[in-house]
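Practice problem: Peptidase A1 domain-containing protein
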Amino acid sequence: MASRRRLHTLLCSFSLSFLLLNGASSVTGSTGHGSGRADAGAGFSVRLIHRDYSPLSPFYDPLSSPSDRLAAAAQRSTSRAGSVRSRTFPNNADHLMQFSIGTPPVQVLAVMDTGSNLVWAHCRPCADCHDPRAPVFDPSASSSFHTLPCGSAQCRSVWKLKTSCTGAGAVDESGTCRYVYGYGDGSTFTAGDLATETFTFDSADGGSMSLLEVVFGCSHNNGSIVDPQLVGLVGLGVGPASLVSQLGPLAQGRFSYCLVPFQERASSSSMSFGSRAVVSEPGAVSTPLVLREDRTLYHVTLGRITVGGEAVSVPARGAPDAGGSSLDVIVDCGTTLTMLPPDVFRGLSAALTRKIGLPPTTDPGKTFLCYETKSRDGFPDITFHFAGGADMVLHPTNAFGEPSPEGLVCLTMLPTADWGVALLGNQAQQNFHIAYDLVKKEITFAPAKCSTYSY
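Answer key — structure tokens:
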């Protein structure tokens, strides 16, 4: 039916946790020449779409100005920075992942997020769908959909998930495993049935990769999730319930992405898993991945910052195991802006003003450090010196927004309200090929021309 083939928009910005039955053994691949079981470690790639800048996104507004987009990015980024110590609020991640769900497959878009760990999608019947026109997955139309009972190993193994199978009033083992997953202060949540379904990803060779019996949250109630187009969530966090963890031998604990710059709207970014997630470009460097108690976020250690060769003070904070002057930094592809503790931000701002040689000012909303100029030409590079000798050189396009109609160029970094939190946002990561390896416990990156990648 046409209704089954229409594009569904799933903003899975905080946690689509894929749990594969039998340890990711239920995987098939297909090409134009036929189909069969995929080899472990064969890898696959998917397209990523920016929610604000790509014409392929349902959120794209061609009339939105650079200032409008920067203001929206600031709101999302500060919200995420304020909630990193709890589950991230599911309205503020940036990149959409395209894949299909069910049998027959229905194409969906879901937000890709390295800052979360659960998997859910709006399902019919839906008790709290905010917009009747919003796409909702209909499990009754799929022949591969099955709910999970409380007695299943998958229900019992979901990481930090409150279900109907434990505690007071728990149902017996034959009852359906129902979950509740809260965000922030708990007023925002998703609740529904744990179920298994087939997820299919297009591969770089023109074929597809199907993951059978993926466990996900079939959500029937989504309290206070304010974005009417937010109808689902794909988590790539460190935890055992994330997609990369549950892909097992297929992903080999590895994934990578290459994000195109905002202004290259005709191009799509890409994400790869397994054998495809290898950084082979010249200049590749690695920094240790620091696993912390949250078991979700990707932490690295920043030793110092330089602006055009001038050092910026980075007081020791949040990285007690590193020793000396260092800062704990969360690498977060879901945050647009880079967020720094107030004292580090002040030092960076002062160094930039000295190097740029223009008086500092602010944008009309008085949010950003700006300079009155119509070009980023001649602005200095900002280098983040991470542990292990891994230097990330941020060119002006990585650290400053596009010139505004008002003739302003603004720094796309902000101070955080929490002195112990620093986030490396996705604008800083543009035109870098960045790979995460949970086995080696390291992040590898190298400069790359991401628009030339074929996902």
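Discussion: Residues 2-51+93-251 form a domain with the Cathepsin D, subunit A; domain 1 fold (CATH 2.40.70.10). Students who identified this feature from the tokens alone can consider the problem solved.
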